[in-house]
TrEMBL record:
Top-level taxonomy: Bacteria, Bacillati, Bacillota, Bacilli, Bacillales
Coiled coil: none
Superkingdom assignment: Bacteria
Pfam families: Peripla_BP_6
Native organism: Kyrpidia tusciae (strain DSM 2912 / NBRC 15312 / T2)
Stated family: Belongs to the leucine-binding protein family.
Domain Leucine-binding protein: 50-393
Keywords, comma-separated and alphabetical: Receptor, Signal
CDD domains assigned to the protein according to its UniProt record, in alphabetical order: PBP1_ABC_LIVBP-like (cd06342)
UniProt name for this protein: Extracellular ligand-binding receptor
Amino acid sequence: MKRIRRRWLHIRSWLPVAMVAFLVTACGGGGASPSSSGSGGGGGGSGGVIKIATQSPLSGGNATLGEAIKLGAQLAVEDRAEDFKKLGFTLQLVPYDDQADPKKGVANAQMIAADQDILGVVGHLNSGVAIPSSEVYEKYSIPMVSPSNTATQVTDRGLKTVNRICARDDFQGPAGAKFAVQQLGAKKIFVIQDKTAYGQGLADAFKDAAQKLGAEIVGYEGITVGEKDFNGVLNQAKAKNPDLIYFGGTYAEGGLIVKQARDKGLNMKFMGGDALDSSSMVEIAGPAIADTYYTSIAADVTKTDEGKKWAQRYEQKFGKKVESYSSYGYDSAMVLLKAIENAIQADGGKKPTREQVRDAVRAIQDYQGIVTKVGFDNKGDNKYAKVYVYQFEPGQYPGQQIAELAKD
């Protein structure tokens, strides 16, 4: 009896390990081990499967924008699938849920590295997840094209694999400050930030630029992601009686801050960055959203006839209206796929290595996407990125685009 019990305990000890291995394989993690040389994969033969991955939050408080990135990339893969079939390859999308969590993003990046058919990543939504995850991509030469990471540190590290099609915080923050001071007439500003790489970086860039333009920063406070009650920080803001409250953070907290501020009689203008650019922001804040402005790194795709047709196609396919990063997820994926195609052609039709795709991505210049033009500099920043200013209206999304700002 003791021998049977010991054998059962032994079986139970390896069952969880076997189940994890099965789940990793089933969700696209791949069965191959990452190469210690970092050469990445799959070069040398023609034909076969080529995959690109997405990394974005598909669950939790940031899921609205994270899913938009995934769906945009999915549409791009479907649009290019026939082209790759003619080249002899089956094109696939492998979505990963990073849950807006740096640890989860890194764990996913390790699984992506293990799947030698994955030649690139579209993502992330959150800079704080992208920064540590991209260290893994760099190790295994996996190119990343981000639709939304704005923190300066994302590209300032000089990694060969990291690229973005959107503007940086050191452009977005000052652009928002210039609009707030010169167009909205803000002289006294209270700044709130969520202590993340994105939120604090954006708030600091806004604050510094606003001060240089002559505004007084009457308060600078941090909140924690996931909080629901902002009475403490709003009481501080009320005591300072600012002309404008600026928030560096995402819509999950931003919507609540706006709503609770209005409930306290704080009826001054409210402003934030691109992470407020979501239909969920309007839903959370409700009627309190009036007199709220935001800068976005994402253009309104419906401003052009081609963009309108694309938005209609997106809505028909997914049964959802486009979000701010739907089109940027699409353009990021299309840039990545163009680079893979270029690498295939440069290598005589063979399946390219990750290094070849990495270099082909960085070489992209003057690519016209559905919503933005893309040309990477030597750090992986988009030379054509712009910042847009929107105003929310109660019950309506997206906000009304009221300004378009190019970098000086």
